[in-house]
Amino acid sequence: MSLVDVTEPARADELGQVHFIGMGGAGMSGVARVLLQRGVAVSGTDAKDSELLRHLEELGATVHVGHAAEYVGEADTVVVSSAVRDDNPELIEARRRGLRVLPRAAALGTLLLDRTGVAVAGTHGKTTTTSMLTALLHHLGVEPGYVIGGTLVTTGLGADAGAGDIVVAEADESDGSFLMLSPRIAVVTNVEADHLDNYGGLEEIHANFAAFVDRVADTLVVGIDDPGARKVAEVARERGKRVRTYGEAPEADYRVSRLSPAGFSTEFTLDTGGIDPVRCVVAVPGRHNVLNAAAAIAVADELGHDPEVAAEGLAAFTGAARRFEFKGDAGGVAVYDSYAHHPTEIAADLRAAHAALESRPETAPEAPSVGDSARSRVVAVFQPHLYSRTRIFATEFAEALALADEAIVLPIYAAREDPEPGVDSGLIARGVAHGRVHESGDPDTAVRWAAELARPGDIVLTMGAGDVTELGPRIVGELQATRE
Question: Which one is catalytic: 45, 110, 134, 170?
Answer without folding.
Answer: 170
